[in-house]
Amino acid sequence: MAQFDFFVVNVAAPAIEHDLNAGPAALELIVGGYAFTYAAGMITGGRLGDRYGYRRLFVWGVTAFTVASVLCGLAADPVQLVAARLLQGLAGAAMVPQVLATISAVYPPEERARAVGWYGAVGGLGSIAGQVLGGLLLTADVLGLGWRVIFLINLPVGLVVVPLAARLLPHVETGRHPRLDLPGAAGLAAGLALVLVPLGLGNSLGWPVWTWICMAASVPVFALTWRWQHVLAARGGQPVLDLALLKVHSYLAGVGAIVAFMAYFASFMFTLTLLLQGGLGLTAFQAGLAFAPMGLLFTLTSLLGTRLVRRYGLIIVMIGGTIAALGLGLLVIGSGHGLPWIMAALMLVGFGNGLVLPQLIGAALVEVAPHQAGIGSGILSTAQQFAGAGGVAVIGAVFFAAAEGGRQVQAMRWSAAIDLALVLVVIAMVAYNRSRALRRERSARSRRAATP
Fold first, then answer.
1. CA 423: distance to chain centroid?
2. Are 359 and 316 in contact (CB under 8 A)?
3. First-to-last CA distance in the chain?
4. Domains (ranges, CATH) in the chain?
5. What does the pLDDT look like over 121-149, one tens digit per residue?
6. What is the pTM of this model?
7. Burial of 296 (0-12, 13-18, 19+ CB in 10 A)
8. By its UniProt entry, which PROSITE patterns does this protein fall under (predicted)?
């Protein structure tokens, strides 16, 4: 639900703009407002799960998300829709961390990778389904609802998920009831706002001075928040950021790789939608269908990738990244050759991404202790959303600047080149993590051999 609603607005934006008379800034807030509250609330959502229980927070989150979705569908003007989207993002922040936290707490390390693989497959499929089903729903104009149906469809989903989750999800007792670090949570939210709001609105407003001032101001805000985390920990308190996680090298490397991946993936989906509809003249439905083969390949390879990684290790993730890089390279050189080249590139990207994303999540969480599952998942999810929003804003700005005068194909080449560079960063970070793992294995074998 959360990933679907993050991406589905891409294809619905023209209809929302026409129906509600929403300007560019309002559209940016409709998309970016959700991303901001979603990202800003993730870590606190993870902490709340540690305190009150993952199942309880998940049920609360799904309930609130369903209500917010209905409010989005009933919005009569851009202000109401922006407000409902902000609420929807907060609800998603309460809901999503509990899924990974439950997986981390319930499954032992040897089984966790497979479970996380399923989670990654569903999340990635939800992202692509936002493009595909969004176009289908808009074209079908269900009950004459137009764009509103993309939000109202969450009502029957929520009515089914809430009772099932309350009945079937396991109760996980973390043994910890951390007090909420309200100053830390407020500092993180303020810092994220000072970055994400200017990034979201800057391009449509022509990057006024206040956008640069806000982004510069985020640096001392983050620094003060970081300092407060250490002060609170020294006093014996429980900061919103679990500083012990910084000692888990696999977690840090995994988060770094996921940041690079999500910056590329979110911007890729955004800019390619603009190319298909604006540059090639496809309808929302046709543009959505163009993503369908990519989604199918992503799902198949993400499930297969879990088994392959268990057998062959992180080299599989590096191979997947290389395949995705080939697809992006094809876009760089072939965007002007029409839809067949673009479809070939999409299939390569979908195939490669399926071998990468779920395995990155699993590798990040494999050494996280069960009592850290909530906050670990919250930080990971925050990093994903922050990277996605930043990637869309920065690479989207490059696309818009290069697309002036109807040069969408040239703009796609530039944005795909940046995405390609980010994928190469992912491959490099995975290679580093793999080399560390191999050194640890060799060291362990040497110690065992030396023991009489």
1. 16
2. yes
3. 56
4. 2-168+179-205+212-450 (1.20.1250.20)
5. 676 666 666 667 777 777 777 788 888 88
6. 0.78
7. middle
8. MFS
Tokens at 364, concatenated: 């990040």
Tokens of 245: 């996680």
Spatial contact of 122 and 73, defined as CB atoms under 8 Å apart? no
Half-sphere exposure of 260 (CA within 13 A, CB side): 21
Residue pair 58/95 in contact (Cβ under 8 Å)? The answer is yes
What Å distances lie between residue 392 and 284, 324, 355, 384, 406, CA to CA? 19, 18, 23, 12, 20
User: Across the chain, how many H-helices and E-strands are there?
Assistant: 16, 0
Residue 129 to residue 7: CA distance in whole angstroms: 8
Q: Do residues 46 and 378 lie in contact, with contact meaning Cβ atoms separated by under 8 Å?
A: yes
Both tokens of residue 418? 């940046």
Do residues 65 and 91 lie in contact, with contact meaning Cβ atoms separated by under 8 Å? yes
Q: How far apart are CA 94 and CA 45, in angstroms?
A: 5
Q: Which residues contact 214 (CB under 8 A, 6 or more apart)?
A: 194, 195, 197, 198
25-65 confidence digits (pLDDT tens): 777 778 777 877 887 788 788 778 877 888 888 999 999 99
Q: What share of the chain is helix, strand, coil (3-state, %, to 5)?
A: 85, 0, 15
C-alpha distances in Å from residue 401, one per residue of 318, 406, 412: 32, 11, 11
Token reading at 192: 């994220």
Is the confidence at residue 374, as pLDDT, over 70?
A: no
CB 362: neighbour CB atoms within 10 A? 25
Distance from C-alpha of 233 to C-alpha of 310, rounded to nearest angstrom: 37
